[in-house]
């Protein structure tokens, strides 16, 4: 991986956790508001499908964010280990 990878992973995690999840949270909030209103059976069925799909999208985003954060931690740990080895070699 190149040196830009940690920055990319941090930016990706930020985008996922703030930008994308904010939109999903907004959609879920709107669905809750619509859920209160009187609707036809067909409209209610469609709203339930939209809510189910949005919840699944939210779960997928949370999983992706967690994986990005873990990948970044692993990269930083590997990078620290490599730096330590390089320092040891230089001082030998």
Describe this structure in words.
This protein has 92 residues and is mostly helical. 90% of the residues lie in helices and 0% in strands. The chain has 2 helices and no strands. It has helices at 5-36, 41-91. The protein is rod-shaped.
In brief:
By secondary structure, this protein is mostly helical. The protein contains 2 helices and no strands.
Map the helices and strands.
Layout: H1 5-36, H2 41-91
Shape: rod-shaped
Order of helices and strands: HH
Q: Roughly how many Å apart are the termini? A: 27 Å
How many strands appear in the DSSP assignment? 0
Helical content (DSSP H or I, runs of 4+): over 70%
Average of pLDDT: 81
Q: Could you give a short account of the major beta sheet?
A: none
Instruction: Please mark out the parts with pLDDT under 50 across 5 or more consecutive residues, or reply none.
Output: none
Strand content: under 5%
Radius of gyration: 21 Å
The class by helix and strand makeup works out as mainly alpha
Number of helices: 2
Highlighted features:
92 residues, mainly alpha, 2 helices
């Amino acid at each position: 991986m190149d040196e830009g990878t940690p920055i990319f992973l941090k930016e990706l995690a930020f985008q996922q956790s703030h930008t994308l999840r904010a939109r999903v949270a907004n959609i879920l909030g709107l669905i809750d508001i619509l859920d209160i209103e009187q609707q036809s059976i067909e409209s209610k069925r469609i709203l339930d499908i939209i809510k189910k799909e949005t919840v699944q999208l939210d779960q997928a985003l949370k999983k992706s964010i967690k994986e990005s954060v873990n990948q970044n931690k692993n990269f930083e740990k590997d990078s620290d280990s490599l730096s330590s080895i390089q320092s040891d070699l230089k001082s030998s």
